[in-house]
Amino acid sequence: MTQPPAPSTTENLNVTGFTPLMTPRELKAEVPLTDAAERTVLAGRRAAQAILSGEDDRLLVVVGPCSIHDQAQALEYAGRLAALRERVKDRLEVQMRVYVDKPRTTVGWRGYLLDPDMDGSNDMGKGVRRTRELMVAVSELGLPVATELLDPFAPQYLFDAVAWACLGARTAESQTHRVMASAVSAPMGFKNGTGGGIKLAVDAVVAASHPHAFFTIDEDGRAAIVHTKGNAHGHVILRGGRAGPNYAPQFVQEAADLLRAAGREEAVMVDCSHANSGSDWTRQRLVWRDVLGQRLAGQRAIRGAMLESNLQAGKQSLPADLTQLKPGVSVTDACVGWDETEALLLEAHEQLSGRAALATC
Ligand SMILES: O=C[C@H](O)[C@H](O)COP(=O)(O)O
Ligand SMILES: C=C(OP(=O)(O)O)C(=O)O
How far apart are CA 125 and CA 348, in angstroms? Predict the structure, then answer.
């Protein structure tokens, strides 16, 4: 039940109400991380860390919808990806984008976590419960969950089920988000800013690797100061910027050089979507192949790649009548469809297997 704010002359002047929310402990009791899901999270984190540190020469592939908006469709996608993951696992570590909290350039639907009914009702209690159920269910398939860290309190409810996380282009420069990243138990990627600046992402890797303290809530929803150790597994994600794509060899090398100069591991992931594809899903395949080519040519700094992919290709606008939504089609950025996703991952697997075979000759 939403409560109006207490009358005051100086605060809450722009607030219309407060709705109580369950605590992280209550939600975790209701939707526990099962043993099978926990095994997937731990194995997914270990694999990502080994790849990012260069101990494991596989490619970390973060692939999945730009945003989740339907539980059943997300699970249909996850089932297909879990099966594909098994087929390519000797060369690719595949983790699924379960992105539920969308940063917007101005305004727009903010994601399944915040508005699961997509009608502006902002039932975040339902959103966080449904998101947790989904993350546990995906993990139970043996498929590690990858997500974006955006809302400051959401990690308390969800991140025990997350294998890999990142800060997006709009928050990688935010101190609030960098210090939060220093607390995250999963490896964290940091995107370059929307302007394209790579140094900004390297600064984020450095900032998040340090210990910090910040305001948050504890498991019981009490206000608390959290003290962190720092995240040792930060890496840069190149996603292009206002000046255009930044996946070409000179940008990858620039990111690697900046990381090395900052005393960090030269670990770079390339996002094949966003400004690297000019938001044109048909160009994601060109970026994917180019990045794979760089890797095959010996660029060891490339440790990962990201694809925005869904059951169906393209995107749709949110219709006024939600029953008109087309199943399996993105409601945010345009995605590669399932058939092409499968083809691109199998192609990469084959090419990387060839190189591995050559290396052992
Ligand atoms: O990944 C999704 C979008 O690029 C990001 O959320 C920004 O979207 P917008 O520019 O449509 O608001
Ligand atoms: C919002 C995203 O990307 P970026 O931060 O690069 O715009 C995303 O990956 O969903």
Answer: 40
